[in-house]
Every structure is written in C-alpha cells, then in structure tokens.
Predict the 3D structure of the following.
Amino acid sequence: MAVIIGAGTTIVSAQFPNGGILSVNFGFSPNVQRLFVLGSFQPYDAIVQKTRTLTVNVYGRRQDGSGGSLAHSLTPSVSCADADTVSVTINPASCVSTLLPFTESYFVNSYSYQKDAQGYGQESWGMTTKPIIPTYTGTIIMLRGIAEGTIGTGDGTMAALDMGVVVDETASNDALGAQIEGQSGGVSAGSPGIGNFDISRFVVVTSVGNSLGLDSTIDGKTGNASISVPLTPVFT
C-alpha cells in the first residue's frame, strides 16, 4: 500500500487549467469472464476486459471569474469516430511505495454540480477509458449517446448555465413544449422543524463545465445538477 500526500500531488489537464481541484479518485478495474466447460472445474479460457476510471472534484469559478473548469461538449456521435476525450496527467506524491506519474485520455460519462445556499459550488466529473482487452487486436471506437439528467429549478435555485449545464430546450420539453418536472419534499416535527421542497427538471444536455463557485448573483441560492452520458464501445 502506498500513501499519497495531497499537498504534493499535482493534476495537469487542459480541461482544468486554472486549478481548483479538491480531490481525485482513480482506478484500474478488470472484468474477468471465465469460460467453464462440462466435466471440469478448471476454466477452458478467460477473457479479461479492463477499464481505467477517474473522478475529479473541482470548485467552480471564483468571484473574479478565475479558476474552475472549461466547458466540455457532449454532442452525440454522428459518425463512427471516437467522442472527444479529456487528457489528464496525475503526479502523485507518494511514500511507503512509489507511484509513478501517469497520463490517460478519458471519456466523460457523468457530471454533477452541488451548492448550498451559503457555500461554494462544486463540480464532479466522472470519466472512463475505452475497454482494454489484451487479446483483442481490432479497433475499438467509443460512441457518445444523448446526455440526459436533472437540474434543480424554481424559486431559490441557480440558473442551469451557472451550474455549468447547457440545456437543449427543444429536446428537453414534451410534445406540447412544456418543461418536464418532478417534485419532492419533506419536513419533520421539532423547533423550528425546517423541511425542504424541491423541483427537478428533466433535461437533455449539450455541454457541461465552467460553472460558478462563488458570486454575488448566486448568494442564497442552491444548485443541484446530475447528468449521465451514455458511452457505447464499437468493436471493429
């Protein structure tokens, strides 16, 4: 096991050029399919598929407009070519066991934003690589589908763009042109017994990132967004 020191770890990425990254989580996970046959407990063969995953949590822009992430397009694939990626280099400051710096190109598969009424807005980016299959010698193309999710809306909530979410208004509305929304709420007894009532809008999204972290225009407002980005590997 290695110990990683946060103050000495650096992240280099054109997607996050101005700093503000508060944490990263990275992994390399195998998916093993063992091929069993009749008359034996020993597998006939094994297919191993690996993927690298990364989660980057970053603060939104400062009040002077600096910092934070850049906008990242989520336009669906219309040809048999890879969707655009985010290149990230991680330089871990480790002890006990040495961890070498590594660079990888990731596909964005999720984005979320969270801000309390009094607090700093934060983004969370989920990313993955293409499947890594040592025995496969063909080409793997990663196609991106239509990004969808929910954003908080109504009184006391931030605008979608301030949360780093660009909404396709036409695609998001129903056949009559009305917004599609859901509601939730709750309160408990006590003094003062404060509860919440929230409205979520279901949206189609074309871009994420470049949100506000702190600004006078969002003081006293909450922000909540959660976007999923479907990715499909095509083997050729």
In short: The longest strand covers residues 21-35. DSSP finds one helix and 16 strands in the chain. Residues 169-172 form the longest helix (4 residues).
